[in-house]
Amino acid sequence: MRRLSLLTAAALVAAVASPAVAAPPPEAPAAQTAHLDFAGKGAIAVWTTCPNEPGAGLECTTTFLSATFVKRENRTPVRAATALFEQSTIRFEEGLEVTVLSSTFASGPIDLAVDRALGGASFQAAMGSQTCAPVGGEIACEEGTATVAASWTGTGALVRFTENSTPGGNTGGPPLLIVHERRAARPASATASLDSVAVPGDLVFAEVFDGARSFVLVCRGGPGVDPADCPAP
Fold first, then answer.
1. In this predicted model, what pLDDT tens digit does every residue of 16-27 receive, in sequence order?
2. Where are the beta strands (DSSP E) in 49-175?
3. Do the Cβ atoms of 141 and 187 come closer than 8 Å?
4. Residue 228, SS3?
5. Beta strands 32-48 and 76-92: pairing type?
6. Beta-carbon neighbour count of residue 132 at 10 Å?
7. Checking DSSP bridges between strand 76-92 and strand 98-110, what pairing results, if any?
């Protein structure tokens, strides 16, 4: 019988006596994230001629107006202001179904002035517009230009709001949405006009605001997770 050297024998004994070393666990897949964020200031207002309890045959008009100076969007500096004007006239039918009689939409860049303490805001600008109305069972629209002017004046105390929503860690499950928001707003009175005609109705809501909001979608995939639900790395 061939003799083993002392070193060879010792190595064999050590190999038999020592437990096998487990392979390290696979690393968790790298987190995939998508970021959406917005920072800006501006003003919003809503007017309506519609009563709280409308009846069949009633016609009324609702107007929505927003003016926003965007400081940053999706990690990119913007520093530009735009306005959005929407006005719809409707008729209530039996069963409170609604027929749209006409609608006007206008939007475009503006020169927006916002008070530093959110005490007021104002603008006047000509912008592209579209007015639509039903004609012969179809919707006919006309493109044009409209001049929108608006002014907000702060009437109440400044209200501040902060939210930080950060769920627990995701090691292989559904995507997590992390939200961070900081906002300040002041209630306001507001007046507006479209082509020098005052917006009809009572003011329902108006405020001047400044704030920032960010969304982070985090996903590590894992069993039962649709890859389409995860952002691209």
1. 333 434 444 444
2. 59-73, 76-92, 98-110, 113-114, 120-135, 138-154, 159-165
3. no
4. helix
5. unpaired
6. 15
7. antiparallel
Over residues 121-172, the pLDDT tens digits come to 999 999 999 999 999 889 999 999 999 999 999 999 999 989 887 655 445 5
Helix (H, G, I), strand (E, B) or coil at 13: helix
Q: How many residues are listed for the chain in this entry?
A: 233
171 three-class SS: coil
Spatial distance between the Cα atoms of 231 and 220, rounded to a whole number of angstroms: 10
Tell me if residue 10 falls in helix, strand or coil.
helix
**What is the dihedral angle through the alpha carbons of 165, 171, 172, 177, rounded to the nearest 10 degrees?**
10
Assigned token pair, 205: 């809501």
Residue 181 is predicted with a pLDDT of 87
* Residue entry with tokens 């209530």: 92
Q: Angle at CA 107, nearest 5°, toward 69 and 190?
A: 65
CB 130 within 8 A of CB 104: yes
Query: What type of residue is 81?
Result: A
68 near 82, Cβ under 8 Å?
yes
Q: Which amino acid is at 2?
A: R
